[in-house]
Each structure stands twice: as structure tokens, then as C-alpha cells.
């Protein structure tokens, strides 16, 4: 039981690779007669399953007190790899604005840098509700854009970008408040 959260993190990394493989190599792995919509749904399903592993590894680790150094490092890494592979897929498919993806990924790298600096100085800044909403909005936007059946996917991505930038600002302010304490 104690290894389940780590196994879920590793499976998220593997599913991130599979997602990118589905999108980049679909002509090699699916029959030519298969309708593109089925490939889109398969990519979206892969992404959604991988996203669920993020929820369950965190839930199981907290509920059963199974936190580990491996999990502390690889859980956020697996999250970033999944989001990165999904955004690369969306760029390849021309379904998302490169500017929005740039803003989202820049925030992710910036906050990761802040976390490293905070950890190096023995401080920790807890995740906020805005960060959780940001993650949910990103997952919804990516899933809809990958499935390519809902015309509001781009609007969801704009909303996710707003929440991403807002939560990044909130996190940055919290970090600087810890410096004054």
C-alpha cells in the first residue's frame, strides 16, 4: 500500500509519454480508416486517466500518511510532464494559442523556481485554493481541446490562463510574506 502513490506518479509520467505518442504517431499506430475523432477521444481519455492519477496519489498519500521524498519530488514533476505533453500535443494539432501556453508554462516554471528557493531556505508555502482551481481549469480545457468536440475549449483555456496567472500572483505574494516572518 505504501508504494501506491509513487506508482501512480510514475504511471502519470508514462501516460504523458503515451499521450504525446498517440498525437504525434497516430498515423503509425491507428488504422488509416479510423476517423480522427476516435483518435482525439483516445488522446483525451488518456489525459483524463493520467489526471485522475494526480488526484488519487495525493489523496492516498495524505489519507494514509504515505508521504515520501520520492513523492515530494516526482509528483509535481509528473504533473508538469503531463501538462507539458498535453500542451505540445495541442500545439502540434493547432488547437491552442501558443501565447496562452507560453503564459501557463512560464508561470509553472516561475513557481517551481520559487518553491526550490523556499525549500532551500527552509520555508514552505502551502498550495492555495486558487492553485487547485487552476489545475481543474487546465485539466478541463486540455481535455475539451484534445477531444475537439466542444467549441468552448478555447474559452476554457483563456479562463485557465487567467486562473493560472492569478494563482501564480497569489503564490508569489505568499512567498514574499514568508520572507518577512
Automatic annotation (TrEMBL):
Membrane-crossing segments per the record: 38-60, 81-105, 155-176
GO cellular component: membrane
Domain of life: Bacteria
Gene3D superfamilies: 1.20.120.1760
Reaction catalyzed: a CDP-1,2-diacyl-sn-glycerol + sn-glycerol 3-phosphate = a 1,2-diacyl-sn-glycero-3-phospho-(1'-sn-glycero-3'-phosphate) + CMP + H(+)
GO biological process: glycerophospholipid biosynthetic process
Places the protein is found: Membrane
E.C. numbers: 2.7.8.5
Main location: membrane
Gene Ontology MF terms: CDP-diacylglycerol-glycerol-3-phosphate 3-phosphatidyltransferase activity
Pathway: Phospholipid metabolism; phosphatidylglycerol biosynthesis; phosphatidylglycerol from CDP-diacylglycerol: step 1/2
Keywords carried by this UniProt record: Lipid biosynthesis, Lipid metabolism, Membrane, Phospholipid biosynthesis, Phospholipid metabolism, Transferase, Transmembrane, Transmembrane helix
Similarity remark: Belongs to the CDP-alcohol phosphatidyltransferase class-I family.
Protein name listed in UniProt: CDP-diacylglycerol--glycerol-3-phosphate 3-phosphatidyltransferase
Species: Helicobacter equorum
Gene from which this protein is expressed: pgsA
Amino acid at each position: 500500500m505504501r508504494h501506491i502513490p509513487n506508482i501512480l506518479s510514475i504511471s502519470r509520467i508514462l501516460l504523458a509519454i503515451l499521450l504525446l505518442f498517440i498525437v504525434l504517431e497516430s498515423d503509425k499506430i491507428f488504422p488509416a480508416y479510423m476517423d480522427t475523432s476516435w483518435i482525439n477521444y483516445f488522446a483525451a481519455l488518456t489525459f483524463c486517466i493520467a489526471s485522475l492519477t494526480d488526484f488519487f496519489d495525493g489523496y492516498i498519500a495524505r489519507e494514509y500518511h504515505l508521504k515520501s521524498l520520492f513523492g515530494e519530488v516526482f509528483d509535481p514533476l509528473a504533473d508538469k510532464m503531463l501538462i507539458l505533453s498535453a500542451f505540445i500535443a495541442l500545439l502540434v494539432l493547432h488547437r491552442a494559442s501558443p501565447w496562452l501556453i507560453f503564459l501557463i508554462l512560464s508561470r509553472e516554471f516561475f513557481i517551481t523556481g520559487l518553491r526550490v528557493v523556499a525549500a532551500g531556505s527552509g520555508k514552505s508555502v502551502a498550495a492555495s485554493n486558487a492553485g487547485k482551481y487552476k489545475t481543474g481549469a487546465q485539466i478541463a480545457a486540455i481535455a475539451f481541446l484534445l477531444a475537439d468536440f466542444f467549441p468552448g475549449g478555447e474559452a476554457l483555456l483563456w479562463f485557465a490562463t487567467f486562473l493560472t496567472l492569478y494563482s501564480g500572483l497569489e503564490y508569489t505574494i505568499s512567498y514574499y510574506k514568508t520572507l518577512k516572518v
